[in-house]
Write a structure and sequence with these properties.
The chain has helices at residues 12-34, 227-243; strands at 42-43, 51-52, 62-65, 72-75, 87-89, 98-100, 131-133, 153-155, 161-171, 176-184, 187-192, 197-198, 203-204. By secondary structure, it is an alpha+beta fold. The strands form four sheets. Strands 7, 8, 9, 10, 11, 12 and 13 form a seven-stranded mixed β-sheet that branches. Strands 1-2 form a two-stranded antiparallel ribbon. A two-stranded antiparallel ribbon has the order 3-4.
């Protein structure tokens, strides 16, 4: 027999290969089980709603300690918090697509869906609010080579003014502008920069019409934004990409 052979048909290399296959299969099952800590069990809609976990089953509950005195969270939980959907299934079978009631703006459906995140701000490594306006982050400034959006009008997809930019909110952990603070008829809220196009004369937003900005929620704290507010505000703009006009939700052909 050759070096490494155990029998005429089995050698060490084969055993190592089989051990790797078993390890890799176990790793896949373990990772798939761990990713079920949130969002499971799956729930269907329709006349006979069901819950199921699939294979493998849910992992055993594990408690995670949150940083900076944020308490702890145990997952998976018996019931994950959910918001009331302002939508109806388009057909009477489980898993049928949902269609929002009304115009769909801010209804939490499709591109406007969001997660019920914590009512606390995202924090930096040293425990400070991570996303703050320039009036708070006084060590930061806008690059003079770029257009300064502060004071510019915000135009909706219809070309009409919907708001005015009053400040820019910077991410202290990854220094760049995350949001523009806008004034919508006296209400201060945020505009994600990835939903805007900043020009020399105006900030343009294609996802919403000028008349639809009024539904944006006001900030609870003028100098910080919570994780929940970030998701809800961003989802509001996202909903407009499909529901701002009737034509957007129709097929292209």
């Amino acid at each position: 027999m050759e070096t490494g052979a155990i029998t005429n048909h089995i050698d060490v290399a084969q055993l190592v290969l089989y051990a790797f296959w078993l390890f890799f299969a176990g790793l896949i099952v373990y990772l798939h089980k761990e990713d079920k800590r949130e969002g499971y069990p799956l729930e269907t809609t329709g006349p006979n709603p069901m819950k199921f976990n699939g294979f493998p089953d849910l992992p055993a509950p594990k408690t995670f300690t949150l940083p900076h005195g944020g308490g702890s969270v145990t997952v998976p939980r018996d019931e994950d918090p959910q918001y009331e959907l302002d939508a109806d299934p388009i057909a009477p079978y489980a898993g049928a697509p949902l269609h929002p009631r009304g115009d769909g703006i801010g209804k939490g459906v499709g591109p406007g869906a969001y997660a019920l995140r914590s009512e606390t701000p995202d924090l930096t490594f040293d425990g400070k609010p991570r996303i703050v306006p320039l009036r708070v982050a006084t060590a930061h400034r806008l690059d003079e080579r770029d257009p300064n959006p502060i004071g510019l009008p915000v135009l909706g997809a219809d070309g009409q003014q919907a708001a005015t930019v009053i400040d820019a909110w910077v991410d202290l952990a990854e220094p760049h502008v995350r949001y523009l603070e806008i004034d919508v008829a006296g209400v201060h809220t945020l505009l994600p920069t990835n939903f805007s196009r900043i020009g020399r004369d105006a900030v343009r937003v294609q996802s919403l019409l000028s008349t639809q900005f009024g539904g944006l929620p006001a900030l609870k704290n003028p100098d910080q934004v919570t994780l929940a507010e970030e998701d809800i505000i961003t989802a509001y703009y996202g909903s407009g990409t499909l529901y701002a006009t009737a034509e957007r939700s129709e097929p292209l052909i």
